[in-house]
Amino acid sequence: MKPNIAFVTGGYSGEAQISYMSAITIEKNLDKEKFNVYKIDIRPDGWMYESNKGEKIAVDKNDFTITIGGEKIRFQAVFIGIHGTPGEDGKLQGYFDLMNIPYTSCDAATSALTFNKRYTVAVAAFAGINVAKSLHLFKHTGIEPSVVSSLLQLPVFVKPNNGGSSIGMSKVNNKEDMAAALEKAFKEDDQILVEEFISGREFTIGVYKTQGEIKTLPFTEVISKKEFFDFEAKYQGLSEEITPAVVDESIAEKVRYTAKKVYEVFNCRGVVRIDFIYNEAKGEPYMLEINTVPGQTAESLVPQQVRAAGMELKDFYTELLKEALSVA
């Protein structure tokens, strides 16, 4: 009997638009011959399953079930495709843990930790992983832009501490631009991270676990046509993405090794995407952040890397679901 899989999309933040873009690819590549797939749209105004006939059926949040034609459908696993809250910050993961339903992403603790960029780099540094020097700022405490400029060496990146897709992010080259960058980031989040710029090549790598083994995908070099890899560069074609990256094997091995170490240190599950800057002067990769629900649009980095590995997305998603079901 085929397992019932809930594929959740949508979300409560501005990143929902990216979730719906990813949903097209995910839904098309979930293997219907192996799984009964039900797409659940999770929105602030309700959690709904839409049938093939267009009928919208509310999810019973008491046990995460839906009732179709008098039959209650229970799910054996959840494929999480929500970027931002509540799918990437641990909230849904905690809910599914209470329901005893396995899922394809990191657990609640890891998701909540990695959603907070500052806490992520703090834990990484404690584990001996290279990260940039940074400041963690809170809206309610306030800080003069000139003080930020004096504590860190310019240029710096200013970004919302929680969230993704580079929304609200700025690169500050001159101290006169600091105030505007802080204001922009604070519009997206009550906490922001200000991080010193590290020169080097930008690499991003998909890492996943299958049959208990941590594996890496062929990684990508990102060359932004803008000053940095912001929202437009990511989603509006303003970047060059070379997959697999053309690098010496000695460099590639350092990136793969560090990526596996990060995955292990943070107790990750499912597929994550880890962003690095490889500083050639020091010959070391520096971790930027961990994306626990990486984009899955046709142009997104993880699907590119899956194809570069000679795999079909359908088989890759099946592996993720099998891994989730195996720990149920």
UniProtKB/TrEMBL annotation:
Its EC number is 6.3.2.4. Residues 121-322 form the ATP-grasp domain. It is found in: Cytoplasm. It comes from the Bacteria. Its cofactor is Mn(2+); Mg(2+). Keywords: ATP-binding, Cell shape, Cell wall biogenesis/degradation, Cytoplasm, Ligase, Nucleotide-binding, Peptidoglycan synthesis. GO terms for molecular function: D-alanine-D-alanine ligase activity. Pathway: Cell wall biogenesis; peptidoglycan biosynthesis. It catalyses: 2 D-alanine + ATP = D-alanyl-D-alanine + ADP + phosphate + H(+). It is an enzyme of class 6 (ligase). It holds the Pfam family Dala_Dala_lig_N. Coiled coil: none annotated. Cell wall formation. Belongs to the D-alanine--D-alanine ligase family. This is D-alanine--D-alanine ligase. It comes from Pinibacter soli. The gene is ddl.
